[in-house]
From TrEMBL:
Organism: Xiamenia xianingshaonis
InterPro entries, sorted: Mrp/NBP35_ATP-bd, NUBPL-like, P-loop_NTPase, YlxH/NBP35
UniProt KW keywords: ATP-binding, Hydrolase, Iron, Iron-sulfur, Metal-binding, Nucleotide-binding
UniProt similarity note: Belongs to the Mrp/NBP35 ATP-binding proteins family.
Pfam (any one): ParA
Gene Ontology terms for molecular function: 4 iron, 4 sulfur cluster binding; ATP binding; ATP hydrolysis activity; ATP-dependent FeS chaperone activity; metal ion binding
Protein name: Iron-sulfur cluster carrier protein
Cross-referenced CDD domains: Mrp_NBP35
Record-linked HAMAP family: Mrp_NBP35
KW Oxidoreductase (keyword) present: no
Any single GO BP term: iron-sulfur cluster assembly
Length: 285
């Protein structure tokens, strides 16, 4: 076939006589869940602020009046519950056995392995395929109710969980997160290329810790080097780009479980607008 890339596992062309492996099958949410849109948040490298960006995007969409959820797919290093101040263990609906998501102060629904452990410092030493199955179960065995936008906080890197999410969840697109070091930008390229090779749209790039703004003189200092996200976004044809400052308030609010209280002003508008536009386009199709 003209469009064949010999990657049958990620190819969705139907009726191909040359197919050597099963193509991807998207899993459906259960009957109690109506999930309209799914957006992955991805970073090629750990510690660049992916969970923070997931939390802020979810909070911004919730402030815009949407019903929002976060599936914490960073199963072995989950940090979403803490950022939202959620500590109670998940409960189950006794009639169906389905897990009920926890809910933040602002109404964001959250499911995370850390809400299933007896103590939140217990390690989760699971192998990749187990983690991938847990992510699928979080998607289709949880009673999510009505959700306009579900954000999936991915583990860092281009691991098999990322492949599982790209292949199995009905994903609208991804937002990538980077920090301003050359190595990190190069690694963003890997995640973007993986998404492109699997026909997943890249909706935006957030360059985190792009600058530090002096509270006395207002001057912006590029502590980790000159931001390069704009050039990276142009290189990979990413349609929306935003920056976030290095701000001790982020770390403090995450530690205090009050991430929703952070006022990002209009810093993430370009990305949030793009997510909303992609959702509207999908609804219209
Ligand atoms: N812009 C920022 N300013 C200050 N602190 C930040 C900023 N971004 C992230 N942090 C802090 O850095 C730490 C790591 O952030 P976060 O957990 O979001 O990273 P991550 O990329 O999701 O990490 P991992 O790859 O391990 O999942 C957190 O304590 C967070 O509060």
């Amino acid at each position: 076939m003209a469009e064949c890339n010999s990657n049958c596992g990620s190819c969705s062309v139907e009726g191909c006589g040359d197919r050597t492996q099963a193509g991807p099958t998207t899993i459906e949410p259960n009957e109690q869940s109506n999930i309209k849109h799914v957006v992955g948040v991805v970073s090629g490298k750990g510690g660049v602020g992916k969970s923070l960006v997931t939390s802020l995007l979810a909070s911004e969409m919730s402030k815009r009046g949407f019903k929002v959820a976060i599936l914490d797919a960073d199963v072995t290093g989950p940090s979403i519950p803490k950022a939202f101040g959620i500590a109670n263990p998940l409960t189950a609906d006794m009639s169906t056995g389905a897990i009920i998501p926890a809910q933040s102060q602002g109404g964001v629904k959250v499911v995370s392995t850390n809400l299933m452990l007896r103590e939140d410092d217990m390690p989760v030493a699971w192998r990749g395929p187990v983690v991938s199955n847990v992510v699928k179960q979080f998607f289709n065995e949880v009673n999510w109710g009505d959700v306009d936008y579900m954000f999936v906080d991915m583990p860092p890197g281009t691991s098999d969980v990322l492949l599982t999410v790209f292949q199995s969840l009905p994903i609208d697109g991804i937002v990538t997160v980077s920090a301003p070091q050359e190595l990190v930008a190069m690694i963003v390229g890997k995640a973007v290329n993986l998404a492109h090779s699997m026909d997943v749209d890249v909706l935006g790039l957030v360059e985190n810790m792009a600058y530090y703004e002096c509270d006395e003189c207002g001057k912006r200092h590029h502590i980790f080097g000159e931001p390069q996200g704009e050039a990276v976004a142009a290189k990979y044809e990413i349609p929306a780009y935003a920056t976030l400052p290095l701000d001790p308030n982020f770390a403090r609010l995450c530690d205090e479980g009050k991430v929703e209280e952070y006022d990002v002003k209009d810093a993430l508008d370009a990305i949030v607008d793009k997510i909303e536009a992609a959702g509207k386009k999908e609804d219209a199709e």
